[in-house]
Queue: 2 jobs
Job 1
Amino acid sequence: MTSKKYCLALFLVISVFFIANMVLWQTVSSNSFYDEDGHGDLSRMGMINMTSSLTHPIEYPQKHIEYSEVADKLEQTHVDILTIGDSFSNGSGGNYYQDYICSEYGVSVMNVPCRPYNDALKTFYILKNTGLLEQIKPRVIILESLTANMKERFGMKEPEQYDYTVEGFNQAQMAGRIKADVQAQIAEEKLAPGIMVKANAEFIKSWLRRMTNDDDYRFNDAVGIWKLNIRAFSNPGWEDKLLFPLSNANVRFEEQVVYNINNNLNDVAGYCEKQGIKLILLPVSDKYDVYSPYFASPPSDWRENTVINDLKKLSHRYAIIDTTNSLRKVIESSDRSEYTDLFWADDMHYSWKANQIIVKEIMQNISN
Amino acid sequence: MLFNTYEFIIVFLPIVFAGYYLIGRKSWQWGMYWIVVASLAFYGYWDIRYVPLLMASILFNYFMGRKIEAGFNRKKWIVAGICGDVALLGYFKYTAFFLTTINDVLGTEYFWVPEIILPLGISFFTFTQIAYLVDVYRDDVHSANFASYCEFVTIFPHLIAGPIINNREMIPQFISEETYKINYDNVAKGMTLFFLGLFKKVAIADSIAPWVNEYFSRPDSLLPLEAWFAAIGYTFQLYFDFSAYSEMAIGLGLMFNLRLPRNFDSPYQATSIIDFWRRWHMTLGLWVKNYLYIPMGGNRHGFISKMRNLILSMLIIGLWHGAGWTYILWGGIHGVYLAVNHSWRTLNFSLPRIIAWPITFIAVVMAWVFFRADSVGSALEIISSMVGIFDGSVVGLVFHGPTGVRVRMLVAFAVLLLFCPSAQRLVEKYYSPNKVWLAVTLLAGFVSFYFFSHISDFLYFQF
């Protein structure tokens, strides 16, 4: 091969590559990536062109307090409920459930995001060991985690307690907040200038999989889809289709893990009792677990994550919010408008509808 | 404009490339004008307001050069020229730093600290031109007309982050008719090197950046293991980022028939600090040696003055990188390293490679912490966390999840850096225009475009 041919081949292939990508992006994949009403990223991860949800996030009049806003004046800040948790506690899905508590029940809620480890138990111990918890003085603590992640977060034999200073913790909180703000800005302004090739590659991969295996429930390595025998969503054409992340699906914990989770939470509850604090565990049930009784044709190897029920059976010193049960009760109610869009169809997070149902349970539990 | 953007790759580069050879075929002088105008457009894309500043700097230095060359009051003109350059750099880069330092020392807010935007690449084009003036003064210069001088300073592959070029090597290339005639061997080699550099930048350096930034943003809360991840991660990120830029610049130069000097030569394979500085940012090292260390006396006045000159040179290198105590300290640490290394050499006892390499590598990693940290206090926090690992504390070490990914990345990059030659060496040694190299280059290009998920600056743009 001569250098001239080498250059021409390189130039031609790169040019064709760019033109093909731009055409694909303009005609198909940008619609999946930047759909009109994107609450989450399941449709994006699966490169699925979905219709928009007829439900939209709503605004609550009263706002909760974020830890980073008052880190330097904790003693002067009145806090009734302290929430510590993952993305469900940090506004993913369009609404903070804490804002609904503040608006509807007139109590003061402070949220401490799990930074930097995305682990409520580690964050709790940092707050306790640094003395910050004593300064916050909440009446109630809500520890939240997605059930699928409870094994790695709460299920170890001995929880790791990191040696943090107040300055270190505040720094991590601020750094996390800046990162979250930047990500929110990127999502809002749809800034992702170089995403074209990545989105196109995902689209082609998913398309090839559907072409060769049209009865496969996996769209690609990240996203699966099942048909339901109820109409769970308001997105036209997608009412009875459940999109879900494959990575966490079909998980059931070993008995020992459930014991460990319970022991670790009992230790936390024991400490809280001494301080006059009520501990509430908010295990956020996964989308596929909530809807598993309604699968039109469940796979033979499907196992529901039963950790909430398993914990309830054990002796526990903390309150448990049975989110699976609460949401199923509503699904089984006759009013369709109540049970559509409890989760966003293209996301794994709760919509404000599910948040309101869960909050009622929480507040009932607190008042008991 | 950044090399790793669609604007550059799809629009700017093809237009400038085509124009360069089409115009150059008719008249090489017009080819030269074309590349100068294109380079100014490249610079102005960042902020058009600073193009006049760049032009003023070029005019000033060219005028000074002519005056020195004229042979009358040469010393006065060289002093005036260097003072002018240093004043320009000092104003834009160091004013805020020095006023803040004075305010801090006096414990007052006596001086108002202005907010001055640092023009892109000012350190590079100023150093390039100081060297030119000194070379003119030493009668060690290739004569240049104004257009070729403009090309020497502005040519876009090297304008904003080097390599720092030398007039004797470059001016003859600029004024050669052959430079403006297409040479497919050079274009092919240049494209290959450009895409390999692009791969290093977007697929490797940018994939390390998010977690390195996260760790350095919370120095007070790092576990020992995280502190090591931060330090080693940054060590790799900086190398992959800056060497990628240099290779892309050299590749682009070749596409325009220009041979830019090598800037990196597998620096993390160095077995001593002296060796490291022969392999890291080589054009800056050469600049400091020729225009600072040797004029200060070099090693000509005994051991003590040699040590003093070394440490002073490194402190200036530190200050050149940025107006902050962290950079000065980083330069000072390397100065001390070099002094120790030179002293050790006088003992005529060399350590085996298996001991010398890790000592050198750890020393370099530790120094990078100062270079990257937001403040000296933060750097000390991170170093103290790193030292904590010797208590046997490996809390947080897992091989799954994000931590597992980081461990695997660091191990893979370490192996790559330790045992593989640099992309430039690979191309120089093994490249030939065949199907294998075509496939490798295309693959590097496709993977790079796949990783264009975000556009990030090159780290060395800030210097």
Job 2
Amino acid sequence: MKPNPLKEEHHLRTKLDEYEVDVPNFPKKLKYSKWERLIHVLASPTKDPFEPLLSATNGFMFMKIAPIAGTVVLTLLQIFLLT
Amino acid sequence: MNLIEQIDEYMIAYQNGNDEALETIYSLLRQPLYSFIFRYTRDEQLSIDIVQDTFVKLQRYRHHYDPKKGKLKAYLFQIAYRIMIVKLNRRKKLQSFLPFLTPITKEEFHHADRMTIQHAIVKLPEKQRGVILLFYYHDMSHEDIAEILEIPKGTVKSRLHNAIQNLKLELEDDFHEAQSFERGTSSPYEIR
């Protein structure tokens, strides 16, 4: 018989018993195709790369000003290059 | 004959060409495998993929299984554990290179919330998590756990001990409350 270090841990055992897992009814087929896997990866939710910028006021201002500043810089560059 | 021995018999039948035996093995071991992977990763789709991959591997290497060396259940858990570790390592690499492309898996947990057993298990170091899950939820012996995780039996014992201590620590508030109930008070902060 295996020694059971959890034998005396009644409360911990009660807590562990509370953790039940609902097993979903995934298809009986034995493998997803590579195409299905790719679709799943592409369709799964991902982090928003701009979230840190949008959550702070300065970041939000930066997002507003950056395109304007970029346009100004590109315009100036063109003016200098053409003249 | 117990269920574990029955599963081994089905595997022998499958090795001898009975394809229906694989369906039976699948229906008997799909749930425990999924539960183990899900409790470890908390990722439903990843758990489904790993269970599918495990059975694909079992089909491909059906003749590699030797019933004299161990039970089929432990053999399948070992395959699933290896696949899971490879996938998790790949995901960690992807996370470090392209953090915004990796799927969201971690559940938000605020310290103000009550610590649940789910969060306590997720917070355990990975090395301890596998041991406690296999020992408690899948009734594996120390020998089987050592085989699945490819670690010495003594390491299984020490990791199990550490996992229990860490879980107790994480669920400390619950323990205090339970103790106060046992002493006959309704709350540890009750004013007399």
